[in-house]
Design goal:
Layout: E1 20-21, H1 32-38, H2 54-74, E2 81-84, H3 87-99, E3 106-111, H4 116-126, E4 130-135, H5 145-151, E5 156-160, H6 174-183, E6 187-191, E7 208-212, E8 223-227, H7 253-288, E9 294-297, E10 307-312, H8 317-326, E11 329-330, H9 346-351, H10 355-358, E12 361-365, H11 372-391
Parallel strand pairs: 1-11, 3-4, 3-5, 5-6, 6-7
Antiparallel strand pairs: 2-8, 7-8, 9-10, 10-12
Helix pairs in contact: 1-7, 2-7, 3-4, 5-6, 7-11, 8-11
Bound molecules: pyridoxal-5'-phosphate.
Length: 399
């Protein structure tokens, strides 16, 4: 058994080195530039950003540089960036922070295909006296902006629709949705975890936007919520009043520096890396759909460049993942957060994918390190493992 790390002994596992890692929507390998940027902030510049001495001031300066860099890339002001422990917290801060500002009650609108960080938060609010409207999506996973318009009510506090879906990649009409919210003076939040650094974001119509560093070759456990100036949120964490009173807790300086460097890299390489990913995606779609009894889940073109999701008749997604793993290929079925439970993905169910096909889904997601050789290898291995699994399946393709 591979023991990645033994406490008391310096031994980092390198189990992934020979792997073809195609699960970049779950998490990405840390870029070496990011590790290099972070390292001094664990060792020599370890100060607390609130301390008055120069060690503390150095940490504070690095944090503010990261904040400014992120703000510059988004075309917003540094004060509008609130660092968090990741996107789960950022999404929670957007929804709960809006809800807690009221005296209780009010209406929120979200979609059926949101990440659990939004979905379960909205569901929890619904048990606490808030009304939540869940918008349906079409067969490609798109929310209709007109449905948003129709669902708005005088007591609507917030609309939350993700920019691009983490399971199927489909992009949402967030420009149109944001414009409708603006017209009606309703807050618009978008979870941009998978879209940030890969596609353009219409910041002029977005009030809150959640990002996570580990999806863009940065460290785990750090992210931010963009909060437009003037938007009032109740804090979820109370304490020393960090982040302008919006999120207390000693700041994760190495993480924040890593998030800044990951942002710099992602935006510097955006056109080039996204074009390569798009090419891989198209190659995967063409290659996989040649196999009988397969379907693409999501939109073929209006989609994030790094995600392709397929369903295979007469196959369990989990078996497919384990078979691919035997070939040193890492992919996933559904999202990493929900795959241990054997319920079919809520996203595929919302698309109307038949249950038998929803159980046989495969998500392939590329990263900046993915090569054409890796995609070719997957396309060679996949027909073989699909056939092996179908040979032992009690179900028939087309049956
Ligand atoms: C779309 C989306 N939102 C939110 C999250 C949660 O992010 P974090 O891992 O930073 O809490 C994820 C991670 O899977 C995601 O893909």
């Amino acid at each position: 058994m591979l023991i990645p790390y033994q406490f008391g002994r310096i031994s980092a596992g390198d189990g992934m080195n020979n792997k073809i890692y195609l699960d970049n929507s779950a998490t990405t390998p840390l870029a070496s530039e990011v590790l290099e940027a972070m390292t001094p902030f664990f060792q020599s510049s370890y100060g607390n950003a609130s301390s008055l001495h120069s060690t503390g001031r150095d940490a504070h300066k690095a944090m503010e540089q990261s904040r400014s860099l992120i703000a510059e890339h988004l075309g917003v002001t540094p004060h509008e960036i609130v660092f968090t422990s990741g996107a789960t917290e950022a999404d929670n801060l957007a929804l709960l922070g809006t809800a807690l500002r009221t005296n209780g009650g009010g209406h929120m609108i979200t979609s059926r295909i949101e990440h659990d960080a939004v979905r379960h938060t909205a569901r929890w609010l619904a048990t606490r006296g808030f009304d939540v409207t869940l918008l349906d999506v079409d067969e490609a996973g798109r929310v209709s902006a007109q449905d948003v318009r129709k669902a708005l009510r005088p007591d609507t506090l917030l609309v939350s629709v993700m920019a691009g879906n983490n399971e199927i990649g489909t992009l949402q009409p967030i420009q149109e949705i944001g414009e409708i919210c603006r017209e009606r003076d309703v807050l618009f939040h978008t979870d941009a975890v998978q879209a940030y650094g890969k596609v353009g974001l219409p910041m002029d119509v977005i009030d809150m936007l959640a990002v996570s560093a580990h999806k863009l070759h940065g460290p785990k456990g750090v992210g931010f919520l963009y909060v437009r100036k003037g938007v009032k949120l109740a804090p979820l964490l109370h304490g020393g009043g960090h982040e302008g009173g919006r999120r207390s807790g000693t700041e994760n300086i190495p993480g924040i520096v890593g998030l800044g460097e990951a942002t710099r890299l992602a935006f510097a390489e955006k056109e080039q890396v996204s074009a390569r990913m798009r090419q891989f995606r198209d190659q995967l779609i063409t290659g996989v759909l040649k196999l009988p009894g397969t379907r693409l889940n999501g939109h073929p073109t209006d989609s994030l460049p790094h995600i392709a999701n397929f369903s295979f008749e007469a196959i369990e997604g989990e078996s497919l993942i384990m078979k691919l793993d035997e070939h040193d290929i890492a992919a996933s079925t559904g999202s990493a957060c929900s795959s241990p439970n054997l319920e079919p993905s809520h996203v595929l169910v919302a698309l109307g994918v038949p249950l038998s096909m929803a159980h046989g889904s495969l998500r392939i997601s590329t990263g900046r390190q993915t090569t054409s050789h890796e995609i070719e290898k997957l396309l060679q291995v996949l027909p073989v493992v699909v056939q092996e699994l179908r040979d032992i399946s009690p179900f028939k393709v087309g049956g």
